[in-house]
Each structure stands twice: as C-alpha cells, then as structure tokens.
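The passage that follows is intended for readers who have already worked through the single-chain material. We present the inputs for a multi-component assembly, then the predicted structure in tokenized form, and finally a short commentary. You are encouraged to pause after the input and sketch how you expect the pieces to fit together before reading on.
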Amino acid sequence: QVSAALKEGHVTPTELCQRCLSLIKSTKFLNAYITVAEETALKQAEASEERYKRGQPLGVLDGIPIAVKDNFNTAGIETTCASNMLRGYISPYNATVVQKLLDQGAVLLGKTNLDEFAMGSGSTDGVFGPVRNPWSYSRQYKEKSVPKSHSEDKEPDWVITGGSSGGSAAAVSSFTCFAALGSDTGGSTRNPAAHCGVVGLKPTYGLISRHGLIPLVNSMDVPGILTRCVDDAAVMLGSLAGHDPKDSTTIQDNFKPFELPDLTDVSKLSIGVPKEYHAPGLSSEVLALWSKAADLFQNAGAKVVEVSLPHTRYSIVCYHVLCTAEVASNMARFDGLEYGHRSDMNESTESMYAATRREGFNDVVRGRILSGNYFLLKENYEKYFIKAQKVRRLIANDFVKVFRSGVDVLLTPTTLSDAAPYTEFIKEDNRTRSTQDDILTQAANMAGLPAINVPTALSERGLPVGLQFIGRSFQEQQLLTVAKWFEKQVQFPVIQLEEVKRHDSGVFQHQKSASFS
Amino acid sequence: QKVSREVLEHLEHLALVDFRDAEGVQRLQKAIQFAEQLQEVNTDGVEPMDSVLEDRCLYLREDDVTEGNCTKELLENAREKVEEYFVAPPGNIPLPKLGERDTFLQGS
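Having made your guess, compare it with the prediction:
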C-alpha cells in the first residue's frame, strides 16, 4: 500500500523517511536500534524521490524504509553484532541481501539490536541492553495488566521481544520501518515475530545468500524476513532470493519472484499437525489457538491430519552440540588483529588473542565456544559431534517422510506462550531459556525447511501469539499462499501504541538500571 | 563425571578464551550433561549429515580474478598496522602456564 502511495505521490520518500526517523526517536526507549543511519537514509530517500519524480522508480521497494539486524555487514555503517568485539567496526562492504535491497531503492534506516552474536532467545544479552517489546506499551496489554500498588512507578512491567532478531521485530511492530532483515538459526526470526505480532519468514536454506551475514552456524543460518503482512514478505523474498556466486551454499536453480494468489479454495490442501509439537510447557492458550486453527482449516474443506515427527524432542540437544561446535570454529576469526576490538596486551600473539577475546565476548559467547571446543576434542568427536550429525539426518528424514505421505504444509505453534516479562525472563540463564524457547522452531533449521510465523490472536494478557507453518524445501510460494489465507481468516488486531512521551525521562532511568544490573 | 582440570586448561588454551569463574565451569558441566541425551537415540546405520544440500552439486566457477584491490579498505579496520602489514606481538611464545596467567583456574 505504501508503495502505491509513493507512486501516486500521496507521500514522498523523504517525508516517509523523516516520519520514520522521528518515530524511531520517540520510541527510543524500546532500544530496537543500535545505529540509526540518519544522513545516509535521507540521502537515499532523496535519490528515490528523484526517481519517482521522473516516473522511474526501481521497483516496489523504491523509497521504502527498512531496518537491518546488526549482524549483517553494511558498508560505511558500524556493524557490531551487539558485542564489544566489533564495537567501532565499520564494514567495508555490504552483505549481498543488503546490497540487493539498496539496489531496489530501499532506504536503510539503521541497524537493529539483537542478542550478542545472535545467541539467545530474548534479545536481552547484547552489550547495548535488552530490546523492549512494543506491545508492552500497547493499550491492549495495559488494559489486561494487573494494576500495581501506588508505590511502584507507572511503568508497565515490560515484556521481552523474543530473540535473537528482537530489534528487527520491534522495529517492524512499532511502525518505524516497513520491513526488516533478521537472521534465523534456531528460530531467531520466528520467535520474536510471534512475540511482537509480525510476520517472520525463514526461507529454505540455500535460497537467500548468506554472504555478509556474520555466521553463527554455517549449515543452518539463513537471513530472515520480518514484515507486517504475508504479501510484504513475498515481495521481500522476491528481491532477495536467488543464486549468489559469493555464497556457494546458495542453490543454482533460477528463482522467479511470485505474487501470492488470493486462495479461496483450500479443499485440495493437506495440513499436517505434528503431535510431538504439543511440547511440555506449551501454554493452554497457545494449545487452544493451535486447535482452533486446525479446525479452521478443516471447516474450510482442507484435509487436516495428525502426523508424527518422532525425533523432534532431540532437535534441541542436537542443535546444542552442532551449534556450539560451529560457533567454536566461527568465533576463532575474532583475534583483534585485522578488525574489531584489540586488547592492549602485547606480550605474545597468543596472550593478545586470549585477552582480546576475554574482553570482547560476553559469558554466553564464551560459554558456547568452550562447550563447542569440548565436543570437538578428539576423544569426544565421535560421541558428540558425529552423533549429533547422525541425529540431524534422522530429524530431516522425519520431515521427508511426512511430506512424502501427501502433507503439503505443517501447522504448529511458534512459541510456548506469549512474551514473558523481562524480570521473569532473566531469572534463568541464556542456555536454559534458549533450550525452552527454541523447541518449536529449531527442527525447521535442522532440516533446512522454510517456515513462517503468522500472528494469530492476542493472549489473555493482551500480547500477540503466532502460529507457525512449515513447508517443503523451496516451496515458499505454496507456504506463503497458505499463510496468506490464514492471515486473512484470523484478522490479527493492529497494535494500539499509546503516547509514552510523558514517561520518557522516567523510562530512560528505568532502562539504565535494567541493562546494567 | 566432572571434567578434569587438564581438560579445562586444554580447552582454555585451544579456544583462547577463559572460563573466568566457577559459573563458567558450571556452564560447561551442564552443557555436557545436557548433551548426554543424544546417547538415547539409536543411530545404527545412519550416516552423519553435514549439510541439507548434500544432494546437490557444489557451485564452481572459473578460476579468474573478479575482484580485489581493496587493501586500503581492509587495513582501515585494523588497529595496528605498518605499511600493508597487520602488526602482531611476537609469536612462538606459548600462552603462559597456569601459575603466571590471570585465570580463574589457578585458584581451584
């Protein structure tokens, strides 16, 4: 819709850009952005305006403000991965996906906040502090909040965004941009999408280039897309997918961008409901919504079958081993020599590296590196790493079997419950939380399958709950078509953000104490 | 079983990252314990899976130079350099033994 408005001249790209930038400023307390590239964004908007004036926009994305997660390289703009290790690191190049968006005329507003190096499921562990879920400030949440005693400040007990692409999800959800890039390794795009009430798409592994995305787990990472509706996600996908000679893990098949049909007849569809996704800890609300969704499909004529993915419960353990192992390898490049933080220790190369890494990484990252190294030790290799790789195959095969039996798309919950308050969330450590929260999203990464979170309804507390659809490899068109139909059926409410200007100074203080505690 | 002190030191040396405190070591213990669950799965006859794209051919291109000449940009991000070299402190000196370095393990 915005694109059409730009084309008709109802609004100009620079106006749009200015509005977004000022909105970013007024929602600063959300801490969604690490870097706001105001000058470059305005310049891009101006260039876009010129093109519209001449009647030659580059495409649907021309002039559209977008945000990018801070683990994608952006030329000339600081890329930190929310870590001390890369503070002050100005990328010399653009990640392929960023370049593609810029080539289409998109306006890059800034880099969004995340968990340090994308490790986490709350967007709470970065060095720039946690990201707040915009829904914490919505009328819907406040109405349902238990009124606090008079002695406490008027601040709502804010909830987390989920992670690790929390900043991107918050940015899209709070209207500061129209689409954002995240990354998805274990659910990092779909989890915050569910908590923030936005669409989160994880494409098939190999469809979108990872060149320029600072890697976590090379065999599972994908760039993720966050938007406010499924159609937008399809548009973004159309611009980003395709073979990249700079990323040899992208497939060579020709990708044709598609428009989503308005599905009216679902009778030929077969929806699979994997029973193992009724995981321990699944809230009764989410379970009810999941059931309701299955009924929705059934009543509309689709074939809804219960299926089994027996190795689902091992996907987290498998991920735990494979992820830490790949992390141990990928983080080895951070030694302070060529870029990033460098310690003042100068006794020897090794001691400089060790000191740099001690100073640059937080506990979560260091913990994973050490665990990864443990699993890769010669005496442990077979028992843990190879074993995990075998289990991975079993998990991937589960999906193959189910899809082969005629199921088109799987329907599962995305998260166990709605977003937790920050004070609750930090009671457990990062690894425990990730273990609990990733359970529904991880297996799709193991098998490399496309998956999408569609916001479904509000919980009793007034917070968003989403449901996940998992599709066959490279069948994004089918997956998104089903998702779009579902989106239309559920009519998820728009967030009603209150003016929080009065609370600005109080909020800032509160935020300070929350991040440095 | 607890991880032995030698293995802990070995890990610190391999990773060039330290545990920092008891919590760090605990974290590793818990991680190992967690990973034990893998042993429950029967994987007889199953091949390890490296990549989900294993059925496809790797993309290869001609061995021609298509880009480069970005010495200046690359050097910009390094803190210490001389002409076109990255400057590192002397190598060939192993990480100081436990007694001398500032690590948590020496206290345990």
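Commentary: The domain at 1-145+158-266+410-490 of chain A is CATH 3.90.1300.10 (Amidase signature (AS) enzymes). The longest strand of chain A covers residues 451-458. How closely did your sketch match?
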